[in-house]
Design a protein that fits this description.
211 residues, mainly beta, 8-stranded antiparallel beta barrel, 12 strands
Length: 211
């Protein structure tokens, strides 16, 4: 499934590229802060760990850049099941991947110092590995997720710069869909909650190619 998501996002960026003014590629590394999430019959605690990733973006003008984002966080975690009188505890390695399509907006600055804000939507994939004690299985999970962040790019040269950023990623758990009708007509809605928030602090290199 993740391969199809990647192909879809890259194809979408290709459409935007028809009207783009510049191409920007960045790679970065840093640290991801996570935490605990409760669910129906247990909880999972995802430990903090290193993260790396990259973005591919196209300028649309007026300080707006549309971009594809990918990052990967390999860390450890602990799963607790409360289905029995004696809770079952598993230690597990977890790979967390984010595939997002979003936009960056320049927030002032100049050609050398460019602060920006970013918003994105996509999916987060959680893949458990190396479960202890052995003999148990945990399913991989993919959820819609949202990202937001602030950062700054510094360009000492025209084509190559560095970036520093702080971001958060939030998987979205949809809890219900409803339809209602009244004297003014009918409507509908949906609700969701955020089971866990990941906080990323990272820095990297930016390469810019003007068209």
């Amino acid at each position: 499934m993740k391969q199809y998501i990647l192909i879809f996002f890259l194809a979408t960026l290709g459409i935007f590229n028809l009207h783009g003014q510049a191409i920007e590629l960045s790679g970065y590394g840093g640290y991801m802060l996570s935490g605990e999430s409760n669910y129906y019959d247990g909880e999972i605690d995802i430990y903090d760990g290193p993260v790396f990733g990259g973005t591919l973006g196209y300028d649309l003008g007026n300080g707006i850049q549309v971009q594809f984002l990918y990052n990967r966080n390999s860390t450890d975690g602990r799963v607790v099941y409360y289905r029995t009188l004696n809770p079952e505890v598993y230690n597990v390695d977890v790979v967390i991947e984010q595939f997002h399509l979003g936009a960056e907006k320049v927030l002032g600055g100049n050609e050398m110092l460019i602060p920006y804000g970013a918003l994105s939507l996509g999916v987060g994939a959680y893949t458990p590995k190396n479960i202890e004690p052995s003999g148990h299985e945990l399913d991989a999970v993919t959820r819609f997720s949202m990202g937001a962040g602030l950062g700054v790019k510094i360009f000492p040269t025209e084509k190559i710069g560095i970036k520093l950023q702080a971001k958060m990623f939030m998987p979205l758990m949809f809890s219900g869909v409803g339809v209602f009708c009244g004297t003014g007509g009918c409507g509908g809605g949906t609700s969701f909650y955020v089971p866990i928030v990941h906080g990323e602090f990272s820095g990297g290199v930016v390469f810019r190619i003007d068209k």
